[in-house]
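Hi C.,

You asked whether I'd gotten around to modeling the 199-residue construct. I have! Everything is below, sequence then structure, no commentary in between.
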Amino acid sequence: MLELAILGLLHESPMHGYELRKQLTTKLGAFRAAISYGSLYPTLRRLQTDGWISEGAPPAGMPASADEVPLLTGKRGRVVYTITAEGKERFQELLTAAGPETYDSEAGFGVHFAFFARTDPATRLRILEGRRRRVEERREGMRDVLSRAAERLDAYTLELQRHGLDACEREVRWLEELIANERNGTTPQPPSADPERSS
């Protein structure tokens, strides 16, 4: 999934490694993007070896970062990664993959969902429907546990199970709304500014 996320971000614009990590957190959220430099840089090297990205000096007009290396210090400046034509093709291949890895895990689903704007409608629908099936299965499993073991669970464990069940039910409703939007050919609308929610 890291490969898809990196190629997707570089498809938007060239970036330094540090900026890539920052954008991963922004786009995917801190939980889904909890990656270390120990996994980011080896993946960048592999993508480079595969010919999907290239590295070089910042392109003309790219804003300098706040901690840019001063001229004439002898230190190496920041490397900027850019997606290649082959990398764009690979990104499209990864986007159209709609197997279980795209909806079974939080990370896999989150990464694919983050790039839904660049994904074709049929693939989006397959991923959303697959995710809904998985969450419904999880929800039914939790209902089963609650009905069979509720009297054996302490109050806090029972609350934790109920919280998990509530989260599954919310996600199923959200997915059903997204699926309906996909079938109708409409895109989700950002929430309007609700003054009561911000207070």
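If it helps when you're writing up: The domain at 2-58+78-109 is CATH 1.10.10.10 (Arc Repressor Mutant, subunit A).

Thanks,
B.
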